[in-house]
UniProtKB/TrEMBL annotation:
EC number: 1.3.1.98
GO MF annotations in UniProt: FAD binding; UDP-N-acetylmuramate dehydrogenase activity
InterPro entries, alphabetized: FAD-bd_PCMH (IPR016166), FAD-bd_PCMH-like_sf (IPR036318), FAD-bd_PCMH_sub1 (IPR016167), FAD-bd_PCMH_sub2 (IPR016169), MurB (IPR003170), MurB_C (IPR011601), MurB_C_sf (IPR036635), Oxid_FAD_bind_N (IPR006094)
Catalytic function, reaction form: UDP-N-acetyl-alpha-D-muramate + NADP(+) = UDP-N-acetyl-3-O-(1-carboxyvinyl)-alpha-D-glucosamine + NADPH + H(+)
Enzyme class, first EC level, given as a word: oxidoreductase
Family statement drawn from the similarity comment of this UniProt entry: Belongs to the MurB family.
Pfam family membership, one: MurB_C
Sequence ranges assigned to domain FAD-binding PCMH-type in this UniProt record: 20-192
Location within or outside the cell: Cytoplasm
UniProt xrefs under HAMAP family: MurB (MF_00037)
UniProt key word Cell wall biogenesis/degradation: yes
GN (gene name): murB
Name under which the protein is recorded: UDP-N-acetylenolpyruvoylglucosamine reductase
């Protein structure tokens, strides 16, 4: 197969995933502009080559070498594309660092994304799992995204409905999985801004900071302080954030659960279902701070699995399965893992 010059052979992915798991890609390309994908699709044999689109690698579990082409999205750019009476419309290249983008919007005086501060990863990865934290999901600020069809290199626009956002979920994890490279995302930041401070952690942190009428930057600073305390910095200890989704029970299953565990934190959803705190379930089973080989459960937040040093993907998977078994046996609740497994 003859691939364009910008494609490299046999590249280590260890530094490109925040879990710091070892793996190599048979082929690898930094994609900084959509035209590169068009060049790739003209290469003979392109259709037979398995492709994987990599952003910041912060929601990824690498289980071994990848015998295909890793497309590492580096597309830059951030701009105000329109200002309307009630909103700022802001577009960012998929390769932009998410947190730097959030802070940049705040510096420009466009609030709205502050609750999502310090989430690792790129702008392009944000819609895939509809990142969310401290009372806000990305979907609430989303306008549309541009994605390149990997088969044709043509740009396809996905509006909010087309993305089918759910809790840590979108069409890009289901029907459209593996078919697109998200190249840019456009957000709607409302001018009638109100701080979202209903999460107890945020309220407490603002009190500690002595803030009574928070600005968006105050909320961002509070979220940063909470995350630094509770979540491990991937630069210091390998991890992919929450490893499991918080499980959602139907009303009947929740009634049975809460009768037995009345102290369990729970969050009623608008549709009548109830979300449980997976971290609480895992801690109850005694896993918090424990290790299984070189993989462990973070001391400050049981929802986060960590690489204690030298872990391979299979070590993390073994620990994840042991936790899922414990939670299933104890509570009859299934835990679903969150990261993409490759
Ligand atoms: N809890 C425990 N033990 C633990 C962890 C949590 O008992 O080890 C309890 C807490 O005391 C609290 C409840 O569980 O009552 C919820 O904990 P927390 O507020 O820390 O949030 P979470 O449900 O564990 C979710 C997101 C995080 C996000 C926070 C804040 C998921 C899978 N995770 O965690 O997202 O930052 O809420 O909004 O929804 C991520 O996705 O990578 C992530 C970090």
């Amino acid at each position: 197969m003859i691939l364009p010059d910008f494609v490299q052979r046999d590249v280590a992915l260890d530094r490109l995933n925040t879990f710091a798991l070892p793996a190599r890609a048979a082929w690898f390309a930094d994609v900084a502009e959509p035209a590169q994908l068009a060049a790739l699709t003209r290469a003979p044999g392109w259709r037979e080559l398995p492709c994987f689109v990599l952003g910041g690698g912060s929601n990824l579990l690498l289980t071994g070498d990848f015998d295909g082409l890793v497309l590492h999205v580096c597309i830059p750019g951030r701009e105000l594309i329109a200002e309307e009476a009630d909103v700022w419309i802001v577009r960012a290249g998929a390769g932009e660092n998410w947190h730097e983008f959030v802070r940049w919007t705040l510096e420009q005086g466009w609030p709205g994304l502050e609750n999502l501060s310090l989430i690792p990863g790129t702008v392009g990865a944000a819609p895939i799992q509809n990142i969310g934290a401290y009372g806000l999901e990305m979907a609430e600020r989303f306008q549309y995204l541009e994605a390149l069809d990997l088969a044709t290199a043509k740009t396809v626009i996905f509006d909010r409905a087309a993305c089918q956002f759910g809790y840590r979920d979108s069409v890009f994890k289901r029907a459209a999985a593996g078919r697109y490279l998200i190249s840019a995302v456009t957000f709607r930041l409302p001018k009638s801004w109100q701080p979202i401070t209903r999460y107890a952690d945020v309220t407490r942190e603002l009190e500690t900071l002595g803030v009574t009428h928070p600005t968006a930057t105050d909320v961002s600073d509070a979220v940063i302080a909470i995350r630094r305390r509770k979540l491990p910095d991937p630069a210091q200890i390998g991890n992919a954030g929450s490893f499991f989704k918080n499980p959602v029970l139907d009303a009947e299953a929740f009634r049975r659960f809460i009768t037995r565990y009345p102290d369990a934190p729970h969050y009623p959803q608008p549709d009548g279902t109830v979300k449980l705190a997976a971290g609480w379930l895992i801690e109850y089973c005694g896993w918090k701070g424990r290790n299984l080989g070189p993989a462990g459960v973070y001391e400050q937040q049981a929802l986060v699995l960590v690489n204690r040093g030298g872990a391979r993907g299979e070590d993390v998977l073994r620990l994840a399965r042991a936790i899922q078994d414990s939670v299933q046996t104890t509570f009859a609740v299934a835990l679903e893992s969150e990261p993409v497994v490759l």
